[in-house]
Batch of 2 targets.
Target 1
Amino acid sequence: MQNYKAILEEIYTDGLNATDKGTVASYIPELAHIDKNNFGIHLKTLDGIEYGAGNFNTPFSIQSISKVLALSKAMALIGESVWKRVDVEPSGHPFNQLALLELENGIPRNPLINSGAIVIADILLSHLKNPKEDFLNYVRELTSDTNINYNLEVAKSEKNTGYKNFAAANLLKSFNNLVNSVDDVLDFYFHQCSIEMTCSQLSNAFFFLANKGYCLTNTAHLTKTQAKRINAIMLTCGFYDEAGEFAFEVGLPGKSGVGGGIVALLPNHFVITTWSPGLNKKGNSKLGMLALEQFTTKTKLSIF
Ligand code: GLN
């Protein structure tokens, strides 16, 4: 039996003492003032063990981590048809890259880069009755927690400065890969990214992907095959042009966000979430990457 508590505490202390904690994202002005000394880790195992260290109960902006939950909702709604509009190949490029879109006739490389997530947002907009309300309820249901909300200031802040996302959405529209208007799709997308959650809430939310599609209350939200597919996409595409590095160093499917969160999981075993707002050059949390590398090294638990 592993001493998870001791391992998490060791990793936490090492992270606190790190000299380079990365740089907080400032292209979304509302995120720029978050203190980069925040650091939290939370582990939840399928057999009921749960430990947290540091700021694991502080809400933060989940940003791109929301793309996984949006994808799972889209798959639950329309199944395999999702793949007619977005591919499943790693991009090897930053999350906001536009060039590939033009080369590939408006079919984004995968659903976890911005252009792909904007197409998924369009699908949700077409299939949910009250899109923003229904999506928030879906996240609350997955997490078994009604205390999760959009941060409207963050959504507004990104809307005011999200020029690249407007460019991506316009390009998608020009290739007829958006059904709804650019403004409506981006309004939904910016809200989706602005959801705030704590590390422990995120571990709960992603539990179903480690548990063959069944959430904490044992409700099936995806089939076993769909959960497998999302985990495969997280492994190959969850960290943009650092997906290879994450697989190499950590060896788990996972997803990062520019708010500094990372969720990773070992199917049938556990979900682990970290939060530290300082990012590395590729836009992934500096301490989070370090902490997860140490976790899989110390426990020898990875998919490999
Ligand atoms: N909302 C952010 C954006 O669209 C999400 C990016 C991220 O977390 N990598 O730019």
Target 2
Amino acid sequence: ADLDAETAALIARRQALLGPAYRLFYEKPLHLVRGEGAWLYDAAGEAYLDAYNNVTSVGHCHPKVVAAIAAQAGVLATHTRYLHAGVLDYAERLLATLPDEIGQMMFTCTGSEANDLAVRIARAFTGGTGIIVTETAYHGVTQAVAEFSPSLGPAVDLGVHVRTVPAPDSYREADVAGAFTASVEAAIADLTRHGIRPALFICDGIFASDGVFDGPAGFLQGAVAAIRAAGGLYIADEVQSGFGRTGDAMWGFQRHGVTPDIVTMGKPMGNGYPVAGVALRPEVVAEFGRKARYFNTFGGNAVAVAAATAVLDVIEGEGLVANARDVGAHLRDGLRGLAARHPCIGDVRGAGLFIGVEIVSDRAAKTPDPARTAAIVNGLRAERVLISACAKGANVLKIRPPLIFTREQADLLVARLDRVLGGL
Ligand code: PMP
């Protein structure tokens, strides 16, 4: 790409200082300097409509969250080895958003640490080691969690105790519930045949990296019953789908009418301040708690909890779950309107403000078109709208705007996508 001198210099400096393992978004990487609401601004002052960041989910630099962080940082910033009411008040409020069976929570700083802790707890409780995940799942960066994150690709070996199941592909599979349950049952049987006791089945509430699969509602029930029958736990990874994103409830798993044994969360929890955690059934952690000590220096610190509390205030105060539901439905309507005119759009799906648009080269054969998908993502960046792509075939547009997104912003996204599709 034709990069300006300043961008090229920053890229060279970054490669020299940060090394080879990092990746930038876009053929023409973005240099952002400021954010406000659903907008991001580059160094030249250009505005970009952010339809992708799932961390700053109540809007970039929300003044209430910024004020809460600043106020607490000016009073006390210490950890969970001292008594502090803030962390208890938050836990009480957060647990009230979850099913009654989920009665305790623990704090970490990242979603990866939350999943890592969830696995330790599940293994201590079940005595098993086996893990079942979907085939393009992502659950995090620690060694233990990377071993069951197949989306990291061939660079990371899946653990010998890990089995993958195909994504619940509602676009290609007529009986999603039946097929998904059968796959999880087959994975359990394969673990058992190899002398590995199943510890857990983990999935993200909307199968984000698998390609955004939201339904049909309830399809998870068979898989959850199967892992429990085998003595394992069901862990709901709500790092992406939690905190109202799916529009119908606070948590993605709720659409399926299932109650997890452990829920992991992170990303939008502090709207940019690192705060994450696990919420669980108390009986599941009892054994782990007897044997292990758990101390996470920054997890649940007073500033993190202040940020997280402010995020809950904003979600409730601004009615953001309902907004995600309404604006998300409006956005899907607009995208389905585009599908009527652009044959490369094979499917529009999702829940609330978590939307997947499947891009195909042949509608009848449903053939993934990753090259066109990448061209659309880069084309939208040129139109100053930010989204990304996901799925096994790298052919699903992943659209995940902040929960404060308006109908007008949704219309703008659709109009600019229309222009990009028309120009390809
Ligand atoms: N689980 C899911 C579903 C995620 O999307 C991510 C991050 N992309 C993680 C876990 C890991 O979270 P973190 O990057 O905060 O460690």
